[in-house]
Amino acid sequence: MKTPLSKKTKFIFITGGVLSSLGKGLAAASIGSLLESRGMTVTFQKLDPYINVDPGTMNPFQHGEVYVTNDGAETDLDMGHYERYTDALMGQVNNYTSGRIYYSVIMKERRGEYLGGTVQVIPHITDEIKAAVLQLDGMADVAIIEIGGTVGDIEGLPFIEAIRQLRADLTKDYSLFIHLTLVPYIKTAGEVKTKPTQHSVKELLASGIQPDILMCRTEAPLQDDMKKKIALFCNVEPESVISAIDVENIYEVPLSLRKEGVDDRILEKLGIWTGAPNMKPWEDLVYKIKHPKHEVTIGITGKYVDLTESYKSLHEALVHGGIDNNTKVNLEYISADDLEDGCDLNSLVGCDGILVPGGFGSRGMEGKIRAIRYARENNVPFLGICLGMQLAVVEFARNIAGIPKAHSVEFDLTTPDPLIYLMTEWFDFRTGKMETRDENSDMGGTLRLGAYPCVLVEETNAMLAYGVPEISERHRHRYEFNNAYRERLEKAGMLVSGTSPDGSLVEIVELKDHPWFLGCQFHPEFQSKPMRPHPLFSAFIKAALEQKKA
Ligand code: GLN
Fold it and tell me: How far apart are CA 352 and CA 543, in angstroms?
């Protein structure tokens, strides 16, 4: 296979060993941020070994949130880390699963593209993986490729084999292997143990990969003698054994890795010369996080409350909104099931702001509507995202605009008043075409996905927050605000403060007689970064803070 080497992009491959959940995504994102701090450009790719073609149909309860990119890709939540820690923009090319790779190979086989040859894991699947990786060639100075799962997993083998081959294609000057392992502290022995790391590196060696740098997750920094021991057993230099210590806050990771000099090692091995990194923005950020002046409690009423991973970006965006206001944000996850009719609403009483996030399916839906009503009637700042916005519209229609049977057709197909409905025809700004769909359309195909423009109305909370007349935000939903009811709701005191440029799609609603009540059809959380908190989250936290003081 020919390597289209631009002689620009250097590739870093990150594998994981011992066990999952060591924070490979955060490590990759942090390395990206360190390289950016030295003035380099970075991009990322996550290779996920599972068979699902993309995470779009996966239950967030099992797999964490589905992260949506500008170009409408439904991706792994690690894309969120990459975008939050760096300026890199993720999209379709940045996330591949085994399923997507196999799908593409099988389609080629069906089209006869292999000319009757036997189609095999090596070379056909591995070539497909290599081609996917090499798409990033030329896109940035450094491409950081994260291999999902743990070395030794059966399903990850083709990926490991592909990156082994890529080392030869790219040469040592253009590729680097980083392996993330665990060095546990064993209480009964009173010492840290290197054996799991040794075994994990052996496993990697058996696949033909010698790591260049080892990043060891530990509770406390590894002493020099430990580093030497690991280095000796794993064929790396002691300086290339990096302690990746547990930190209090995830935004400390770049600083902590910088202290260990991981970026120096990377640049040295890849033969890149740059000046010292500017870590001031990260230092200031961590200082701000650790020294808040105020505190607010935000109640989040959702379905996946047991697994905060399923609201990863939302959680982070709220923290960012807090940083912008020098405020520590306490998140109170409240199961919407516990707010259904007949339950008391005590759990909402201590909240300075209430947020109803996006979601699919009817479970907990009436509980969410009760939470919205509580926020509206008690002047509690409210942010409704996607489903949260749709339910805010339903609540207002039922209880204020005199439409008691108002509903979303997602939950009641035969409702006489479908406030939220399935648009059958609309002009799509992204494709530049009229699009159509109906109830029988394929579930996957009917979602409005990715970034869409939205124009804001003067003198609204939305406009105040953003400070610009036109914005672009990411969507992931099937249903829309029904314009047939727009006038009635507006007469009753609902304000449409953001629409698609042609005015046909309602994107943001607010309430006139309320300190801060805003629902948006899009997901602002996907564009919030610690260094650039999203305007709506900043404004929401500010409103909650003011409400608390009042
Ligand atoms: N279930 C709603 C829809 O499909 C909202 C989706 C969401 O909140 N992301 O329109």
Answer: 9
pLDDT value, residue 15: 96
- Residue among 386, 391, 410, 411 whose CB has most ligand 1 atoms within 8 A, to mutate: 386
Computed from CA positions of residues 250, 277, 8, 83, in that sequence, does the dihedral angle turn out positive or negative? Answer: positive
Q: How many residues does the chain have?
A: 550
50 to 104, 158, 164: CA distances (angstroms): 15, 12, 20
Record the tokens describing residue 287, joined without a space.
Answer: 């200082």
121: DSSP letter: I
* Backbone CA torsion sign across 403, 404, 407, 412: negative
Residue tagged 């000796």 (tokens) = 232
SS3 22: coil
Q: Are 28 and 78 in contact (CB under 8 A)?
A: yes
CA torsion sign for 52, 58, 63, 67 is positive
Known catalytic membership, residue 525: yes
Q: Which two tokens stand for residue 123?
A: 């070379």
- pLDDT-derived band at 480 (thresholds 50, 70, 90) equals very high
- Per the annotation, the verdict on 216 as an active-site residue is no
Give 212: exposed, middle or buried? Use CB within 10 Å, 0-12, 13-18, 19+. Answer: buried
Q: How far is the CA of 451 from the centre of ligand 1 (A)?
A: 15
User: What is the SS3 assignment for 57?
Assistant: helix
Ligand 1 atom 1: the closest Cα is on which residue? Answer: 360
- DSSP letter for each residue of 265-306: HHHHHHT--------HHHHHHHHHHHS-SEEEEEEEEES-TT
**CA 396 centroid distance within chain:** 31
SS3 letters across 425-447:
EEEECCCCEEEECCCCCCCHHHC
Q: Ligand 1 pocket by C-beta < 6 Å: which residues? A: 358-360, 386-387, 410, 476-479
Q: How confident is the model at residue 444 (pLDDT cuts 50, 70, 90)?
A: very low
Query: Three-state SS for 464?
Result: helix
Q: Which amino acid is at 271?
A: G
Nearby residues of 373 by Cβ (< 8 Å), 6 or more positions away: 395, 399
Domain 293-421+481-499+506-549 sits in CATH at 3.40.50.880
CATH architecture label of 10-284: 3-Layer(aba) Sandwich (3.40)
Distance in angstroms (rounded) separating the CA atoms of residues 266 and 18: 23
Q: Whose CA is nearest to atom 6 of ligand 1?
A: 477
Which range, of 83-87, 314-318, 430-434, 525-529, averages the lowest pLDDT?
430-434
Q: Nearest Cα to 390, choosing from 412, 402, 379, 70?
A: 412
Inform me whether the pLDDT recorded for 427 exceeds 80. Answer: no
Eight-class DSSP state of 420: E
* 477 Cα to the center of ligand 1, angstroms: 4
Model confidence at 4, in pLDDT bands (50, 70, 90)? low
Task: Give the pLDDT band (50/70/90) at residue 303.
Answer: confident
Q: Which residues contact 366 (CB under 8 A, 6 or more apart)?
A: 340, 341
